[in-house]
């Protein structure tokens, strides 16, 4: 895989470092009262997909596609109401996990930029979307 191109996966230390990153990130998700209810009771499967996706995305082996198919991440996130608050929590946990694991430059900036942009792209809900349901509208605003 070392063809002279810069490779984040290799620079940070490959599978073992991404494994630590995902473990640390998920420990933070598990302790987050805003995000925990959005995730299933059993976090193990999602954790493994996250590991396979991130290693693939950052230049490692294409195991996510082999096992799961095309990522289509926005579509896979559509069941979860991701608003600005959820996105901010998610991103804060990922950045904290990167620091805890000790991911260094230049990969650190590349990964941070990606996580900031991609987490924004995953937003699919207005703040307090539940309040925008028809039956919560004042009667005069219903049509
Ligand atoms: C950089 C942005 C993000 C990336 C790369 C990402 C990546 C992933 C991946 C790879 C999966 C597993 C998909 C599969 O089933 O194959 C997943 C699941 C999930 N993500 Fe994200 N995600 C991002 C942002 C977010 C945000 C902002 C939220 C909101 C809190 C979120 C919540 C979830 C939830 C609830 C699941 C389902 C977990 C499960 O079924 O166990 N994600 N994400």
Overall description:
The chain has 143 residues and is mostly helical. The protein has seven helices and no strands. α6 packs antiparallel against α7. The radius of gyration is 18 Å and the shape is globular. The chain starts with 7 loop residues before the first helix and ends in a 22-residue tail after the last helix.
Q: Which overall shape is indicated by the principal axes computed on the Cα atoms?
A: globular
What's the level 1 CATH class? Answer: Mainly Alpha
Amount of beta strand: under 5%
What is the ordering of alpha helices and beta strands?
HHHHHHH
Mean pLDDT: 91
Ligands present: protoporphyrin IX containing FE
Number of strands: 0
Q: In percent, how helical is the residue content?
A: 55-70%
Task: Please render the helix and strand layout as text.
Elements: H1 8-12, H2 14-30, H3 44-57, H4 63-68, H5 73-77, H6 84-101, H7 107-121
The structure holds protoporphyrin IX containing FE.
Key words describing this protein structure:
143 residues, mainly alpha, Globin-like, 0% strand, globular, binds protoporphyrin IX containing FE
What's this entry about, in short?
By secondary structure, the protein is mainly α. Helices cover 56% and strands 0% of the residues. The protein is globular, with a radius of gyration of 18 Å.
């Amino acid at each position: 895989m070392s063809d002279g191109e810069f490779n984040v996966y290799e620079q940070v230390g490959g599978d073992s470092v991404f494994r630590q990153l995902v473990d640390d990130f998920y420990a933070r998700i598990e302790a987050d009262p805003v995000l925990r209810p959005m995730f299933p009771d059993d976090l193990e499967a999602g954790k493994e997909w996250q590991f396979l996706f991130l290693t693939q995305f950052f230049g490692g082996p294409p195991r996510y596609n082999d096992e799961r198919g095309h990522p289509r991440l926005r579509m896979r996130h559509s069941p979860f109401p991701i608003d600005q608050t959820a996105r901010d929590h998610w991103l804060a946990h990922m950045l904290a996990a990167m620091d805890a694991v000790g991911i260094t430059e230049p990969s650190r900036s590349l990964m941070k930029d990606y996580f900031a942009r991609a987490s924004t792209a995953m937003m699919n809900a207005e703040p307090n979307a539940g309040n925008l349901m028809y039956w919560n509208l004042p009667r005069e605003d219903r049509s």
